Amino acid sequence: MTEEKNWENILLRYKFAKTMLEKELEIIIGDYEHRTSSHPVEHIKSRLKSKESILKKLEKKKVKTTPENIKKYVHDVVGIRIVCSFLSDVYDMVNIIKSSKNLKVLEENDYIKNPKSSGYSSYHLNILIPLYLEENIEYIEGEIQIRTLAMDFWASLEHKLQYKLPENIPVYLRRELYSCSEEVKSLDTKMQHLYDIVKKYTDN
């Protein structure tokens, strides 16, 4: 098998895994919404890393570009971002995904309770997605990010700014970005409080 054909097979498997994950999320979230009559998800975005992005990541880690190393070092070839309305919705989504019989959680990182030094907040789940190929089941890794609208707003703008800035970002800019993330955190907390009050009235 040629190297090009080998890459086609690898990327095709990840493409199938992305489709499987999208369908699984559509079902388990749809079931949750039907049972609870709530709609916690604002929107869902999905993407598949390109061959070029995968190669760059492997080169950055200084490892060979082999299929084994893709599985070993690149954990987010399949990426899903779930954007929720409120903080409580984020944790509801985490529990829904963890209860799925088809997805296996490998690792989870709560960057909401423990934000990154930059101020980045989100909940990350690294999961295994089953692929039923011929008579075998193959598991492909993917990453799910779950965050609020406010967190997504900050992360999207911070990402754009990072691309425009030099590698060594001035300290005062880092401080300003972190300060903005704290304001986002405060906003999420206030909106959750208001949501809890409204929910209390509607439940009664």
Describe what is shown at a glance:
This protein has 204 residues and is of the alpha+beta class. Helix content is 55%, strand content 23%. The protein is flat.
Walk me through what this model shows:
The protein contains six helices and five strands; from the N terminus they run αβααβαβββαα. The chain has helices at residues 3-36, 51-60, 67-73, 87-98, 149-164, 171-203; strands at 41-48, 78-84, 104-110, 123-133, 136-148. β4 (123-133) and β5 form a beta hairpin. A five-stranded mixed beta sheet has the order 1-2-5-4-3. It starts with a helix and ends with a helix. The radius of gyration is 19 Å and the shape is flat. With 204 residues, it is of the alpha+beta class. 55% of the residues lie in helices and 23% in strands. The protein has two domains: 3-149, 2-Layer Sandwich (Beta Polymerase, domain 2), CATH 3.30.460.10; 155-203.
